Every structure is written in structure tokens, then in C-alpha cells.
Amino acid sequence: MSFFKKIFSSEKKENLSQEAKQSLDKGLEKSKTSFFSKLTKAVAGKSKVDDEVLDNLEEILVSSDVGVNTTLKIITRIEERVAADKYLGTDELNQILREEIAGLLSETNSGEATEFEIPKDKKPYVLMVVGVNGVGKTTTIGKLAHQFNKAGYKVVLGAADTFRAAAIDQLQIWADRVGVPIVKQQMGSDPASVAFDTLQSAVSQDADVVIIDTAGRLHNKVNLMNELTKVKRVMQKVLEDAPHDVLLVLDGSTGQNAFEQAKQFTAATEVTSLAVTKLDGTAKGGVVIGISDQFQIPVKYIGVGEGIDDLQVFNKHEFVDSFFK
Ligand SMILES: Nc1nc2c(ncn2[C@@H]2O[C@H](COP(=O)(O)OP(=O)(O)OP(=O)(O)O)[C@@H](O)[C@H]2O)c(=O)[nH]1
Ligand SMILES: [Mg+2]
């Protein structure tokens, strides 16, 4: 790479991350506004952090969908600081919260990455996307395909949600929009067979990334889980270590429901990473903090809008920065 190219590409990268930062700020706006207006009310007329302030704070965190267990951890940390420093002022509460939440998240395995990357030793890298209906699976796949494509990877999509004709059409629209190939069959065909074809096609095209869409709804939950297991098993006939990642998509705007879905899915099938969507337009952004803390599975991506660029790599440092800015 020439010197000028290097400068240009590093400038471009900075620009992009600047854009990403703005879109994160915008995506978290509702959550922040709601959180800080509650916090302002909770400390009104109070100069120091006392039991009453802590009680209120606990209520605010729970009502911001951080989740009870994670809230208790945060409150305990703050109590310890209050015990050590009896005159902790409420004007410092914001900073303290920020530090404690960052501290808590630093212990989780979510959010270390800053860029859309795939493991270098997997080719093609196979990503299977799962989740209940309507959470944003297909949209997330389209956005991911766009990011990987932009990064120079050769992407192939597989329409293994054969339960609805519209599901296949929807993925086709995304494939056309991004400009990547899609492997599909008729509605009602065997999803495992679509996944098999997709992997074969990807291997023969020397593709870098395969993303498999799956159904979010079937006649019942047991069917759905059995089907996912079968899709995986059949993919392994082409690539024995596929899928390399199973991404569970959760709708962040459903708050506690997202926790429930994560619990149920991770108990029923192997999930290796999480995406939390629809953080824009909701005040429930705190759910990402709770999910990162409560699950051993890393949150990798967050959805902050319906547009093609509205998917971000979840980075906990950026998230906390943006939330407490
Ligand atoms: N505001 C917002 N909307 C989103 C986001 N991600 C997805 N959506 C919207 O959520 C709706 C459902 O998204 P889909 O991608 O169709 O969800 P799905 O999980 O594939 O749904 P099924 O195929 O029915 O199982 C669509 O209207 C998307 O535009 C996001 O991050 N923000
Ligand atoms: Mg879909």
C-alpha cells in the first residue's frame, strides 16, 4: 500500500468510526434521556448519596431494563464506595455509575471488538443466525452482509427460513441491495438442504463468509429447536466444524422478554454470540448492560436502526462512553 493510500484509508477509518459513534449516540438517545431524567429527579434536593438515593437508583436501573441481578451488583458496588467515603456527593453519582458499570462490563466477555471481523482460520466462516420471529434476524443478516462485503470479504447468503415465502423474498431483497449471492429453494423445502447447498456453493466459489437465515416461527418450539439441530448437522457434512458461530438475535425493545428468550434459546441450542437489535426508538437500552453481564455468551452486535448501516459491533467501552456522555 502506498504512503498516500495508507493515509487516506486511515482517515476514512476515522471518519467511519466517527459516523458509527454518532449513530450509537443517536441510537441510545431515548434510553439516555429516560435514564438521566429519572436520575435527576431521584437526586433532586439531595447533596449526598444516602440510602434513599440508592433505593431510587435501584428502581431506576431495574426500570431501565438493566435487570434485577445486574442492578443488585451495581448497587452493591456503589454501596461499597459510599461505605468507604461517607460524603459521596450526588453530583458525583453520574461519574460513579459510569465507573461501576464500566467495571462490571470489563468482567464480561462481551464487546471487545471494534470492527466487523471474521476469524482468519475459517474459510468460509459460517454464521448461522437464530431467534424468534420478528426480532430482526433477516435485517441483521443484510446489514452484516453489507459490512463484510464492504470489508472486502466474499459473502454468500443462505435462505434457510423456508417457512414463509416472504422470508425468502426478504433475504433476496437484502442480497440484491448489498450485491451478494443468495442460495434459496422453494418455500416449504427442507431448511437443512438449503443450508447444505449454500455451503457447497460457498466452498466452490471460494467465499469467505456464509450467513444462514433460519425460521423464527414453526408449529412449536420443540420443532424449531430440532430443526436448528438438523440444519447444523447437515452443514457439517460439507464443513465438519460448521457453523463456526451461532448468533442469537434479540429484540432489545422488548426489555425483559429479550432476557427470557436468551435463557430459553441458550438452554435449548448452542448459541455462541448475541445481537441486540432495535435499541433506537426504545428507552430499554439498559438491557444490553444486563445481557452482557448475565450471559457467558458475548454480545457482538447491536442494531440501532432499520438502515443498512445501522448495525454496530458492540464495544462496551464505546457503549458506556456514549451512554454517560
Ligand atoms: N428500528 C429498528 N428496527 C429494526 C432493527 N432491526 C430490525 N428492525 C425491524 O424489525 C422488523 C423485523 O425484522 P426482520 O429482520 O424481518 O426480523 P426476523 O427476525 O427476520 O423476522 P421473521 O423472519 O419473521 O422471523 C423489520 O421491520 C425491521 O426493519 C433495528 O435495529 N432498529
Ligand atoms: Mg426473517
TrEMBL record:
> What is the reaction catalyzed?
GTP + H2O = GDP + phosphate + H(+)
| Annotated GO biological process | SRP-dependent cotranslational protein targeting to membrane
Listed binding positions for GTP are 131-138, 213-217, 277-280
Q: Name one GO cellular component term.
A: cytoplasm
CDD domains the record matches: FtsY (cd17874)
User: Where is it located?
Assistant: Cell membrane; Cytoplasm
Return the broad EC class: hydrolase
EC number(s)?
3.6.5.4
**What is a single molecular function from GO for this protein?**
GTPase activity
User: What is its biological role?
Assistant: Involved in targeting and insertion of nascent membrane proteins into the cytoplasmic membrane. Acts as a receptor for the complex formed by the signal recognition particle (SRP) and the ribosome-nascent chain (RNC).
Q: Assembly state and interactors?
A: Part of the signal recognition particle protein translocation system, which is composed of SRP and FtsY.
Name the family the entry cites.
Belongs to the GTP-binding SRP family. FtsY subfamily.
Name the UniProt record assigns to this protein: Signal recognition particle receptor FtsY
Native organism is: Flavobacterium macacae
